[in-house]
Amino acid sequence: MSHSYRLPGLAVTDHVLTVPLDHAAPAGSSIQVFARELSDPAREGERLPWLLFLQGGPGGKSPRPLNATSGWLTRALRTHRVLLLDQRGTGRSTPVTARSAERFSDAEALAAHLALFRADSIVADAELIRHQLCGEEPWETLGQSYGGFITLTYLSRAPEGLRACYITGGLPGLDTTADDVYAATYPRVRDKMAAFYARYPGDRDLIRRIAGLLDRRPVRLPDGDRLTVRRLRTLGLMLGMGEGAERLHWLLDEALGADGDLSATFLHQVTNLTGLVDNPLFAVLQEACFAQGGKPTDWAAARALATRPEFAEDADPLLFTGEMFYPWMYEEIAGLRPFRDAAHLLAERADWPELYSPSRLAANQVPVAAAIYHDDMYVPTELSLPTARSVGALRAWVTNEWEHDGVSASGEGVLSRLMDMAGGRA
Asked: What is the pTM of this model?
């Protein structure tokens, strides 16, 4: 099904396609996958190359464009027809939600269902969509963050579908485990917190004061969840973005009301930022997206946290956490409670299929240009650089000019440079 309409400066067509839930058993259950096609109205009838945007996550839906003048999209629409994909389970693609999780009869069935939402299934969906829209013509991809992980799975499984690939902050280690990731990212978060406190020294005492309030008596969020110190600390997730420190500072700036208690404004914002209502897959599949090689992830972030005394709740200064998810969240966060038992089963699972083919990637001939952000809090440089050396036809640009959201924060800059690199112009 397709539906066409206009947005300011954009010709838009929405596509809804039916795909197998399990591509290994195509005759079984099916789900819907949604994708939004964008083009310059002045070039709508032209035969333009396609650019598939692969959003970060896991569990992130595609951007919802407001007009044609938003960063990388402006550059892309000059030469390409863009496809914004709601990856399976997100947005309008048969979303996985707390409500849908409650419909499963047992945790085993839900865990088996959730295991079908990793990068390998997303690539299989993309290939069905490509054949539907483009026939045999290959397309280009722009993979932001987790979208870069999907890109390497795509190059491993179906390189014939790709003309060129652009990756921003998303080169994973090909044999990296979840333990490797957190060994690298906890120090990054510590350093981001040190920089945050250096920039906003008053927030050090303010955060400790807020933590003291939460320890002395129960504080309820608007959805009824209790705000604990450990939930407060998950706000550190935003520190890896270009304006993340400022966003956190201004959030804290309104934390206390005139009576010295936590303000309704602050509690409302914390609910939205930490509730995971619209993207539970972000928590459920975060460690599973690193699972391969016959080993369970076994709550790697929680195990790593326990070995780092500087992250203790009574440490001074109080450090926030980053892109890490813990077993307690499935008890204390309403949007995750229906996933609790299934999440434990996923953490125990060892028989995950491989996501990357090192031999196929080494022989790759599809032009790939990748931006590696030197100070990235989520995808550490030391894990990305070996991959950059291991993938054929890949050119890397290592920069500390941007944080993890550089492709959007830079306007046209990052995508323009990557396109020039892949095309041999830079």
From this structure: 0.97
